[in-house]
Amino acid sequence: MHIEPGLLAQGKLMFANAAAVAVLAAHAPALLKKPALWLRTALAAVFFSVLMQSFHMKAGPSELHLIGAMPMYLLLGYLPTLFGFAAGLLLQGLLFEPQDLVHLAVNALSLIVPLMVVHHTMGSAAAQRLGRIVRLDAAYYAGVTLMVGFWLALGEQATALSDWAMFAASYVSVAALEPVFTFGLVRLAATVREQAWARACLDERLTAAA
């Protein structure tokens, strides 16, 4: 999902910046009204940054990263995950990859837009079953690869369709492995949901589950 610096012209970067600010601003009131979500946003940002830093490799015209979208979404909730993506990318840029800050909005939108689509069309309700998690993951990573294709299509240099297909195919392994990881974390979290720290850190839908 990583878009290399220099691919997009300044005007297109300004469009991405404005779009990212608009998306975050639209969701900010709901986040600010619930202080409990602030801790979860911080946890999402750190979790995402650790995964991003733990594994990344070149894949066609972009990079393959561990994202951990569904663990964050199902355990921490929609808003913490949405803002956690933006905060995590900012943290990643400040600490490890300062050259990527120029594409902060581009990379954030590549993760946030698919999350919004999944949340508003499929939702996370009853996502305790592995089959449901697999469908959520498949839809999300399909969205991520399409977003990368969108940015590549806007690039100043033409990118071959086969190169984008190579990138898309690389995420098949992530989409295959992450549901098992997510399922394990969700089941583990369910065993501690009655504890006070879990109620503070985890999404209310999980801690209130029967």
Automatic annotation (TrEMBL):
The chain crosses the membrane at residues 12-31, 37-55, 75-95, 101-118, 138-154, 166-190. Keywords: Cell membrane, Membrane, Transmembrane, Transmembrane helix, Transport. It comes from the Bacteria. It is a multi-pass membrane protein. It is found in: Cell membrane. The keyword Ribonucleoprotein does not apply. This is Energy-coupling factor ABC transporter permease. It comes from Azohydromonas lata.
